[in-house]
Description:
- The chain is of the alpha/beta class.
- The chain has 4 domains: about 5-105 and about 200-245 and about 410-455, Rossmann fold, CATH 3.40.50; about 110-185, no CATH class; about 245-365 and about 380-405, Fumarase C, Chain B, domain 1 (Orthogonal Bundle), CATH 1.10.275; about 475-575 and about 600-650, Rossmann fold (3-Layer(aba) Sandwich).
- The protein is built from 28 helices and 20 strands.
- The strands form 4 sheets. It has a 7-stranded parallel sheet, sandwiched between helices. A 7-stranded parallel sheet has the order 14-15-13-16-17-12-18, sandwiched between helices.
Amino acid sequence: MPQLAQASREALSEGGALATQLDAFVPRAAQQRLTGAIADAFEQRDVLLAEAGTGTGKTFAYLVPALLSGLKTIVSTGTRALQDQLYHRDLPRVRDALGVGLKSALLKGRANYLCRYRLEQAKGEPRFTSREQVDQFQRVVAWSGRTKFGDMAELSALPEDSPLLPLVTSTIDNCLGSDCPFWDDCFVVQARQRAQAADVVVVNHHLLLADLALKQEGFGEILPGAQAFVIDEAHQLPELAANFFGEGFGMRQLQELARDALTESNEVPGALATLQPPVRALEQALRELRAAMEGLPVRGTRERALDKPEVCEGFETLATSLAQLSEALSPLAESAVGLETCAARIGDLMTRLARWRGKAEAAGGSPQTDAEPADSGQPDVPETAATSGDVLWYELTQRGFRCQRTPLDVSGPLREHRERSHAAWVFTSATLAVGGRFDHIAVRLGLDDPHTLLQPSPFDWPRQALCYLPTGLPDPNARGYGTALIAALWPVLEASQGRAFLLFASHRALREAAETLRDGPWPLFVQGEAPRATLLQRFRESGNGVLLGAASFREGVDVVGDALSVVVVDKLPFAAPDDPVFEARLEAIRRSGGNPFRDEQLPQAVIALKQGVGRLIRSETDRGVLVLCDPRLTGKPYGRIFLDSLPPFARTRRVEDVQTFFGVTVPETDGQAQDAPQDPTDWYAAARF
């Protein structure tokens, strides 16, 4: 395999396999440099950290060496949607172009596959709350008889948040394993068998991390052993890993346990009468606890929750009701495999609850607050003492809650698994570097001395895009900022005729902007008013719409062409300082002698901004304007780090240059009109900076 890098570059070059076999494939020098670095990492079983700017073509850049190397390769993507796109579209195209016959497999978490046992249980159960749910269930039943792989994504008409999904899929908690009567026909088992036999396996980060967490706990591995790992969208990995290397429990999880216990009791004479009273007591305890948590912040520390006497009493009642249900289940557990599984789940949840409450009692008291540092021109950060390497916290949802233990630092387990694998590891994304350096992400991933590659986007940014920084806006935390923001944006939206994506730092700011813009001439598409996929489709089709989103829309908004010609960022995306995990991480940095702003807040915000900016230019023919509204970009010393981390935009402070960019006639100061340039790509020749 010594010629892997050369072979990979040749395959992606002019006259190479992809250029001759794939329509619309355009050879790119940036892509060839990236694929060469990835191939070298494969050859040497080394570690590579590579930022590949939008338009580099990183997917083909790693698929080519993965397929030519012959190594058993795991490719992990950020979301299931990207996973499906990679497996069903990109991988077959590259494999066919190269003419290699390697086997590939798609592997998802068990909750993505139909569970035949739970489907049979759900038949005839009075669980459906509407005729629509009944119709959806019947479609699931009909599909179950013809599906080959049991992947719930095949049912495109079934919403991702459908309440039917937990009824017809399994979890690690309720799976019966080899005791299941449908074990020989289990879609999860079959998917794992295909993955074991495949040369290239496509997974997502959730499954990859669940596997690593299980390995750490000694339960064996889900994924087959591999010789090479490619982690796409690698910037997401540290935050996701923190969840998987911690533990938690939630109201929905406990409600499902109660429901499953009653369902399984139907198989054992007399069991239903025995279990109904403790199940009802558990359900009542959950309702009362959730009611007691009203008035608490949406997210907060465990101490904050338990400082409220009603909440503390609610958790005590919950623990008692779980113990009573466990006692009632114990003599019945041997009567049915399902009841035995429920008994084991209760034991695990009781342990998690005791750990979450017991650590709080042992620690004692509430977090203390240090004195505020002198003004450094940086955002104010509440200082919270971290008492251990873990953070115990809660989160409220509309009708539920979740309690969680999250480790502050996951670099250790990530490093341990990577070293134990003796495999090549490639971490890549369009947003990894801060000011041209990889220090921040390398530390969080546990990479001590990785090879790095910073491959900028190959797009012609000076001609394709303009960065507009409006003048005269107040401090983003000042009253009236939202009103001033819309006033500054209005002429931009008029010049672009809508076709804009407005990205907000908070849902409150998003709602306020939506109310103001409803009087405008452009159709609005507001996050939360329709499913994400529906909003994006309507926005694309509108031709002049304005899309409004918050943090979760920084990624996954992929709109090529004129429909998206403006991206607006209202504020620099510093993480909310009242997030309990974030607070504790900042305090841990402070205690170790670091600078929380420099070492954590700033790099995280830079990466988040780069994600949002990446929505603007998605192809060689796209053109657009980036509007960065936060005056701290030019008024604070750290603003330069943000600007230096972005692509090489031309920048302006004049709205007239935005109008010229979009071919709008700009009035001269003496009242005479200035004609827009004939060639729209030459807008900058007439612009005045």
